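Bug #77: duplicate submission created two jobs. Keeping one. Sequence:
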Amino acid sequence: MWDAPQATTETARPPSVGGEYAIQVGAFSNGAGATGLVNRLLEQGYPAYVIFTLRQDEESVLYHVQVGHYPDRPAAEAIGRQVEEEQALDWFIVVALP
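Kept job's structure:
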């Protein structure tokens, strides 16, 4: 006998399909804070990662938490709104690094 698939309450998340847009959801002066947020997002199914930049003083690093690579602004905005609603995070669109 065939079993019907179980219903789920999880929200389907569009995959990160490649493209020049991402959303940034956090910036930290320490790697631990950034890693914690990335892990939380990964557990929820978001394609999150950390980009780090050297600050102008060249003595400290800033860790940027970003999500996805999306083909256009509307796709990135849709994920941004979803992250804001589900994770209570502020966000903005950035040009994704390759």
